[in-house]
């Protein structure tokens, strides 16, 4: 009683497992979520808030940081000294992926169509290299050895991501913001000995491990803007053109 806490939005998934258990749900999808002054959740979904973070900073961890943590560590098995390629930097998950990998000691390469986002990725997040999404990835990354690709863009980038991955490398997919369907050359895939993994959210075990990692390294999320509860529509309007870099926070109350 009296502890400052945050909500784990991965409902009903407690022990780490290869896939979510039956009955798993995500708070706010498709039901009502946290755009409210008061909600009711099970005490099993509550964890202590990292002390070094403000409420707004801690409030953006739940979905994006958990998704990134499972994709990077559980599925991607990132190791210190490896190189990870993250297409589409700027989203909440992609910024967490970059931050997590850098604190582990990995080399991070990102892409974006926006020159501003590419500059932010290097100056704010510590990315080692940022390339134009519209460039020739194989040419731009010809001198790099990509051990791991973590991609959430989907059909628009799947084969391009695969083309820069080293033989025997790992690829993790956790979303599809473009087309859901992709065509791949199976012969090239099995001759390349690639390893393909998929990921969704994460378990309570991973949520707690994510919080420990954030506290251990004193990590702060990349924040773009904060809106009040009565400005939720403005927040969605700001997200629509995809110009944000990092997370959008909603301040529920002063």
SSE string? EEEEHHEHEHEHEHEHEHEHE
Main sheet, how many strands, which sense, barrel?
Answer: 6 strands, parallel
The proportion of residues in beta strands is 15-25%
Number of helical regions: 9
- What share of residues is helical? 25-40%
Q: What separation lies between the terminal Cα atoms? A: 21 Å
Spatial strand sequence of the major β-sheet: 7-6-5-8-9-10
Structural class: alpha/beta
Radius of gyration of CA atoms, rounded to a whole number = 18 Å
Query: What's the β-strand tally?
Result: 12
Which residues sit in consecutive blocks of at least 5 with pLDDT less than 50?
none
| Shape assignment | globular
Please provide a written account of the structure.
The protein is α/β, with parallel strands linked by helices and 254 residues long. The protein is 31% helix and 21% strand. It contains 9 helices and 12 strands. It has helices at residues 55-59, 62-75, 92-104, 115-123, 137-140, 158-164, 186-191, 204-217, 232-239; strands at 5-7, 10-11, 25-26, 46-48, 83-86, 107-112, 129-132, 146-151, 165-173, 195-198, 223-228, 247-251. Strands 7-6-5-8-9-10 form a 6-stranded parallel beta sheet. The longest helix has 14 residues, at 62-75. The protein is globular. The protein starts with a strand and ends with a strand. The model has no long low-confidence stretch (mean pLDDT 94).
């Amino acid at each position: 009683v009296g502890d400052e806490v945050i909500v784990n939005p991965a409902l009903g998934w407690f022990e780490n497992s290869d896939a979510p258990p039956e009955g798993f749900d995500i708070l706010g999808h498709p039901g009502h979520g946290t755009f409210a002054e008061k909600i009711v959740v099970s005490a099993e979904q509550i964890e202590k808030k990292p002390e070094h973070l403000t409420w707004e900073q801690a409030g953006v961890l739940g979905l994006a940081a958990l998704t990134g943590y499972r994709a990077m560590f559980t599925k991607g098995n990132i190791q210190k000294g490896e190189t990870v390629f993250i297409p589409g930097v700027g989203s909440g998950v992609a910024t967490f992926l970059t931050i997590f990998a850098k604190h582990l000691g990995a080399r991070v390469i990102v892409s974006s169509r926006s020159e501003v986002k590419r500059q932010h990725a290097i100056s704010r997040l510590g990315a080692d290299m940022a390339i134009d999404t519209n460039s020739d990835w194989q040419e731009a990354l010809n001198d790099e050895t990509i051990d791991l690709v973590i991609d959430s863009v989907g059909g628009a980038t799947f084969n391009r991501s695969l083309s820069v991955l080293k033989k025997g490398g790992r690829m993790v997919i956790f979303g599809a913001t473009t087309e859901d369907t992709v065509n791949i050359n199976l012969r090239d895939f099995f001759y390349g000995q690639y390893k393909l993994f998929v990921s969704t959210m994460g378990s309570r075990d991973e949520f707690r491990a994510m919080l420990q990692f954030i506290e251990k390294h004193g990590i702060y999320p990349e924040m773009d803007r904060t809106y009040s509860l009565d400005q939720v529509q403005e927040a969605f309007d700001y997200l629509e053109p995809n110009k944000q870099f990092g997370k959008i926070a909603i301040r529920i109350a002063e």
